[in-house]
Specification:
It comes from Trichonephila clavata. By secondary structure, this protein is an alpha+beta fold. It has helices at 4-28, 53-62; strands at residues 37-45, 48-51, 66-77, 88-99, 105-118, 121-133.
Length: 138
């Protein structure tokens, strides 16, 4: 990909596709969600840090069953000079999530994705993830 427009278009489509995959996995196949992370990934969940794929997996296992409604996705390519030439995309998602036994809550989540060589070509893996519930101010 040589021109900026192509990179932006690829990032947008990749971000949308990845978001759908992530939340479908989170809601319906939670035991597989850690496969979307790099071994060295980080997750910040409402200010609580989890480092490494194994610790992230253990954290997700503690969460109740969820149902997610994505409301918006924005994805932008990261300049290769910032990520040692690695193809990377920043994906920002917002929506509504409902955990079993809790009321629906607005959330936003940002993923830093990096392309990894797979058997069938490049696949996206999460290098960093930051999730935050939106709280109303009183």
């Amino acid at each position: 990909m040589t021109d900026k427009r192509t990179k932006v278009d690829m990032s947008g489509q990749s971000g949308t596709d990845f978001s759908k995959l992530f939340y479908e996995t989170m809601d319906k196949k939670r035991h597989l969600v850690s496969n979307l992370y790099l071994e060295t990934a980080s997750l910040i969940w409402n200010g609580n840090p989890y480092f490494g794929k194994e610790n992230i997996s253990k954290f997700y296992e503690t969460l109740p069953v969820s149902s997610t409604d994505i409301r918006s996705v924005d994805a932008q390519p990261i300049a290769e000079s910032f990520v040692q030439g690695q193809t990377s995309v920043l994906v920002s998602v917002s929506g509504i999530v409902k955990f079993s036994g809790k009321s629906s809550t607005l959330y936003s989540e940002s993923f830093l994705l990096t392309a990894q060589q797979g058997a069938t070509g490049n696949i996206w893996k999460i290098a960093a993830d930051c999730f935050r519930f939106h709280e109303t101010l009183s």
